[in-house]
């Protein structure tokens, strides 16, 4: 069902639609994996401000852009065998003080970063080796640090430290970890956004996976200027320490506020009831409750709303139905292509 506008499925295909997906975390690969099955040119722009887990440890040891989200995105778009993907994703469980907990892929990305001297060229090299169908671009060529101001006026630095505060966040911004230079995205990132038919934000943690990318000044400006359909895939569940009790319109409102205007043109929101009897809080202790629908609030921000049963719920876990989401994105991308021709 579509709320607020009538959707058209565009059949005539003069070229593959160009879809840019911006974000990080576990939700992004689900959508990318399904988009890969569509006839589209995909570019994934991946967050580089993660400071937790294996990524954070490597970042501290060798000052590399955190590789975890990049690793997962590469796998989601790769055409190598499943066995090779499993090796790339394998995480050491030994008691070694350094290797314990590290994924092999993270170590490979760190090594290539050292060989090439920068993360962007490292990822392009690895994309060729992994037969990636599309493009994977780090949001910045330098590691970035996430900063947050809370509603109470206090400030915190670092992704993990911010969420651990469990306070309502007022705004976030990024700084260059290694220097006082202004963070910036490299030119291929900006060109991908400029040429896109659809720019997709999410799904993923609002303040720590999506906004860090948009707060890179020239990347945010590219999103503001693009003629593409700007689509936000709203999270299914609220997230502890970030979006406690947020509605879908509040998610969109935060993004628009950070961008300085109503730039989200379409939002995909789940309209189906979640079977909470299947939900195991022990598995998803960071999630609180389903995101509430506020269609009026979304329309007040000039946002088209597409609502459907976007849930893929199995084994007590809740994910987006990647195939349904991907089809909606492709429909919107073709519609944007038609408008550009007109």
From TrEMBL:
Functional summary from the UniProt entry: Required for morphogenesis under gluconeogenic growth conditions.
Q: Which InterPro entries match?
A: CofD, CofD-like_dom_sf, Gluconeogen_factor
> Would the keyword Cytoplasm be found if you checked this record's keyword annotation?
yes
Answer whether the UniProt record assigns the keyword Oxidoreductase to this protein: no
Which PANTHER family does this entry report, sorted A to Z? GLUCONEOGENESIS FACTOR-RELATED, UNCHARACTERIZED PROTEIN YVCK-RELATED
Question: Which CDD domains does the entry link to?
Answer: YvcK_like (cd07187)
Keyword terms: Cytoplasm
* Location relative to the cell: Cytoplasm
The species this protein belongs to is: Lactobacillus xylocopicola
What's the name of the protein?
Answer: Putative gluconeogenesis factor
Q: Which family does it belong to?
A: Belongs to the gluconeogenesis factor family.
């Amino acid at each position: 069902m579509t709320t607020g506008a009538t959707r058209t499925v565009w059949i005539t295909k003069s070229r593959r639609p160009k879809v840019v997906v911006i974000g990080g975390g576990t939700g992004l690969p689900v959508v990318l994996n399904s988009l890969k099955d569509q006839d589209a040119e995909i570019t994934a722009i991946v967050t580089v401000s993660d400071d937790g887990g294996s990524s954070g440890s490597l970042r501290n040891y060798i000052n590399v852009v955190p590789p975890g989200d990049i690793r997962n995105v590469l796998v989601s778009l790769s055409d190598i065998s499943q066995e090779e993907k499993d090796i790339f994703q394998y995480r050491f469980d030994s008691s070694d003080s350094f290797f314990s907990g590290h994924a092999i892929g993270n170590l490979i990305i760190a090594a290539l970063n050292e060989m090439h001297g920068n993360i962007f060229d490292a990822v392009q090299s690895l994309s060729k080796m992994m037969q990636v169908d599309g493009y994977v671009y780090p949001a910045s060529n330098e590691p970035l640090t996430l900063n947050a101001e809370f509603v109470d006026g206090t400030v915190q630095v670092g992704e993990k430290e911010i969420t651990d505060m469990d306070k309502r966040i007022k705004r976030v911004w990024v700084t260059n970890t290694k220097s006082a230079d202004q963070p910036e995205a490299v030119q291929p990132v900006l060109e991908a956004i400029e040429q896109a038919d659809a720019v997709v934000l999410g799904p993923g943690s609002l303040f720590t996976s999506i906004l860090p990318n948009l707060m890179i000044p020239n990347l945010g400006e590219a999103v503001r200027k693009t003629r593409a359909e700007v689509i936000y895939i709203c999270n299914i569940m609220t997230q502890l320490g970030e979006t406690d009790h947020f509605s879908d319109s509040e998610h969109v409102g935060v993004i628009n506020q950070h961008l300085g205007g109503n730039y989200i043109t379409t939002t995909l929101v789940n309209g189906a009831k979640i079977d909470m009897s299947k939900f195991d809080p022990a598995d998803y202790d960071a999630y609180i409750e389903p995101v509430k629908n506020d269609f009026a609030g979304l329309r007040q921000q000039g946002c088209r709303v597409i609502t459907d049963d976007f849930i893929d719920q199995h084994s007590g876990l809740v994910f987006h139905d990647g195939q349904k989401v991907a089809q909606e994105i492709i429909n919107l991308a073709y519609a944007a292509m038609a408008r550009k021709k007109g």
